[in-house]
Specification:
It is built from 4 helices and 4 strands, in the order ααααββββ. It is of the alpha+beta class and about 140 residues long.
């Protein structure tokens, strides 16, 4: 049986990070459906979760590997941006008493600076440009 499954999956895309993300959303919707008494809302969530399940299996059994890889890379870029946004805001809160965060006016990257009052000259670690900042 294991050999038959392996030969069936040969040349197919299989599971990746996007498939895992779809599975997590599917499971969350299944749990939410348990607590919704409204039949119409529960039916809509059921249809959405069923569509997600079908899409997940479609991606796993697909033979169009370049397209599935591109979809996964796009998902990973979006997920990385979301994680970085949450990490930045967590760090802003964590270091709010000792540091300030400013954006570089040239490349727009967030820079963490010590909280020392006054006018300062700052060099961006990404682009290398210098600019003046004021910390109150």
């Amino acid at each position: 049986m294991k050999q038959k499954l392996a030969s069936f999956m040969y040349g197919r895309y299989g599971a990746d990070e996007l498939s895992k993300g779809i599975l997590i959303v599917y499971l969350l919707l299944a749990v939410v459906m348990l607590f919704i008494p409204n039949t119409i809302a529960r039916t809509v969530l059921y249809l959405i979760s069923f569509a997600l399940c079908i899409y997940m299996f479609f991606r796993m059994f697909s033979r169009n590997i370049p397209k599935r890889t591109a979809e996964n890379q796009k998902y990973l870029r979006v997920r990385r941006k979301i994680k970085e946004w949450f990490l930045l805001h967590r760090n802003k809160w964590k270091y709010r008493k000792t540091h300030v965060y400013r954006k570089c006016p040239y490349c727009k990257v967030q820079i963490r600076l010590p909280k020392v009052k006054g006018e300062h000259k700052c060099a961006c670690p990404k682009c290398g440009d210098s600019f003046d900042i004021s910390i109150k």
